[in-house]
Amino acid sequence: MILTVHHVTTYDYDAPMRGAVQSLRLFPSRFDGQRTIRWDVEVQGGIRGGNFRDGAGDKVEGWSLRGPVTEVTISAIGQVETTDTAGVLRGHREIVSPFAYLRETSATWIDHALRDLAEAAATGTKDPLDRAHRLSRAVSDAIAYRPGTTHAHTTAAEALSQGEGVCQDHAHALIASARAVGMPARYVSGYLFAREDGEPHEAAHAWAEIWVETIGWIGFDPANECCPDSRYIRIGSGLDAREAAPIKGVAQGDGSERLDVTVALEAVQQ
Amino acid sequence: MTTYFNEMYEGGQVREPYARLEDWTKAMPAALRAMKQAEAEALFRRIGITFAVYGEGGDPDRLIPFDMFPRVFTQAEWRKLERGIKQRARALNAFLLDVYGRAEIVRAGKIPARMVFQNEAFERAVAGFTPPRGIYSHIVGIDIVRTGADEFFVLEDNCRTPSGVSYMLENREIMMRMFPQLFRENRIEPVDGYSDALRRTLASVAPAKCEREPTIAILTPGHYNSAYYEHSFLADLMGVELVEGADLFVEGGFVWMRTTEGPKKLDVIYRRIDDAFLDPLCFRPDSMLGIPGLMDVYRSGGVSICSAPGAGVADDKAVYTFVPEMIRFYLGEEPLLNNVPTWQCAKPDECKYVLENLGELVVKEVHGSGGYGMLVGPKSTKDQIETFRAKIEAHPENYIAQPTLALSATPTFVEEGIAPRHVDLRPYCLVGEKIELVPGGLTRVALKEGSLVVNSSQGGGVKDTWVLAE
């Protein structure tokens, strides 16, 4: 599938800021399931900084803006060819040991309920791949997809306790559960092409990857009860949503910020 | 009373390195001594050196007691120490480069993956990055204790930003000012080459993108920090800027320093702030001390940071037990300096031994420092031992134990005259284009009679450390 992405993020400030710095993890991953045809990242009026590929294989680029800044517009526009690898992150170059993904963060802190959920799902099978699937299913069952019920800082434990949330909450809960039974897991940010009819929809997405010893990293999307396929574009990863965020930035000044994000995905007719 | 090695007297004889000091003390009446001591204190106060040694906490304005009786090594003793220290600094750096790369030492099964990758000090953000010359820890402070004429043990390694070197330099300066004749009578290796060596070391790890004489700065958390004196002192000696996070910004893939003549590109940052505070975009988002975007510049090769972020994974007390293995694995050599035998409470059989022998052991927290959270078995009451037993049983993985070492003692001026007091040593090894070690270091002394805890927060003082020339 060839997908066209048009992703524009705008921060508006109600008072001029002295300057802004951005760290963008906003480039499609390189692996067997994805080939970038073109991809342009631009910060309007910004100064491009250095870029590098980190130990997890993500490309990162720094940007800065000189003040006064009243608006920061970040656009990522491009085209990616995807193929279904049944969720397996094959051919992805990275150097970080999977063991580094057993560490808890505040968003993925494992409470009793998460541990119970994970242990219940994991019993009955010793096969790690089977375990990963069961964990993902358990999270899908325990947390209903309901936008607006959680916020950016909701933790895995909170989402589980209220039984509803969005893809970020599903991913956090799955990561925490996997780690609870000793399986390395991480947060993945990206895009999902979900509507064949071409209607605009919320295309920014997130899911989890679990390390399965004999295979490698495998994606699981508990929000959609599946593994990522050719409708998914993988961008970046991290221990949790904060680390994996495609856009991190700070602006210096006293103004308050208003965020506007539009993501449009389109399938190119072949 | 336990026996210990007295560095000045052996079998009733004065040991060679201290030969000339006996006459010096005999010729110093109590009144003169008191005067000199007051003079030394006034000098320390005037220069404002009142900070605590790294991580020790305590009152930042308290003066650490200075003992005028120097601690002396012969050239031969020092050469042996020097070889061992440099060997260790090389191995620690090889380990750091390895664990942020392919982690061959873990693959080879020499150290558990968990201990490295789940370590709080392991920074995933720098994995896969090779800093200039492959060096992560540019200033390695290695704490050493002595138990015999020829027996030295490494107590711990400090790979991040070991402090206290200003004491090494100031103690010497003050001794030379107060007792010039001592320095005429004894041929003592100078330590004042340290600042040049530090500057050389920092300049030698400038990023490849730097095509001229590198600009270096020391990054301090500010004047509220207990080691601020040392930051400004070293900046002064090296002739480099002392900056805070707010003085710096990133643009176009480089770090810039605000100056009265406009922005100046910075190539090497000797940072004296912890990893967590370096860059709010990468580490703690609430950090007010750091520079947003610094890590992106660092990772794309626009600036060097010393010590490299992530260097702390090599100096944790649990990783410490694997340093001899690192030396064999990376250098193919046998360790010249030994570790103190260490029991890991994380291992059930070792924990059992520790709990059965608490009265004789020293127990430390894996992540603790500064002599806090520590049990010295032979010096503790039954209650203290039982409190510790409960702590170990609750979280065995947080504790290690070591035998109570009979630390060597050197003569020290005390209320009643001169008496032996226990000491340790922290030399500062510089790792850049070359590995350099100034002949000397910081000697800390436990001023309380019988005490083995040399930390300034627990009643420790400092001494000038001499290495005699041949």
UniProtKB/TrEMBL annotation, chain A:
<dbReference type="GO" id="GO:0006508">
    <property type="term" value="P:proteolysis"/>
</dbReference>
<feature type="domain" description="Transglutaminase-like">
    <location>
        <begin position="159"/>
        <end position="224"/>
    </location>
</feature>
<keyword id="KW-0378">Hydrolase</keyword>
<dbReference type="InterPro" id="IPR013589">
    <property type="entry name" value="Bac_transglu_N"/>
</dbReference>
<dbReference type="Pfam" id="PF08379">
    <property type="entry name" value="Bact_transglu_N"/>
</dbReference>
<dbReference type="InterPro" id="IPR002931">
    <property type="entry name" value="Transglutaminase-like"/>
</dbReference>
<dbReference type="GO" id="GO:0008233">
    <property type="term" value="F:peptidase activity"/>
</dbReference>
<protein>
    <submittedName>
        <fullName>Transglutaminase-like putative cysteine protease</fullName>
    </submittedName>
</protein>
<dbReference type="Pfam" id="PF01841">
    <property type="entry name" value="Transglut_core"/>
</dbReference>
<keyword id="KW-0645">Protease</keyword>
<dbReference type="InterPro" id="IPR038765">
    <property type="entry name" value="Papain-like_cys_pep_sf"/>
</dbReference>
From TrEMBL, chain B:
<dbReference type="InterPro" id="IPR016450">
    <property type="entry name" value="UCP005522"/>
</dbReference>
<protein>
    <submittedName>
        <fullName>Putative circularly permuted ATP-grasp superfamily protein</fullName>
    </submittedName>
</protein>
<feature type="domain" description="Circularly permuted ATP-grasp type 2">
    <location>
        <begin position="70"/>
        <end position="446"/>
    </location>
</feature>
<dbReference type="Pfam" id="PF14403">
    <property type="entry name" value="CP_ATPgrasp_2"/>
</dbReference>
<dbReference type="InterPro" id="IPR025841">
    <property type="entry name" value="CP_ATPgrasp_2"/>
</dbReference>
<dbReference type="InterPro" id="IPR051680">
    <property type="entry name" value="ATP-dep_Glu-Cys_Ligase-2"/>
</dbReference>
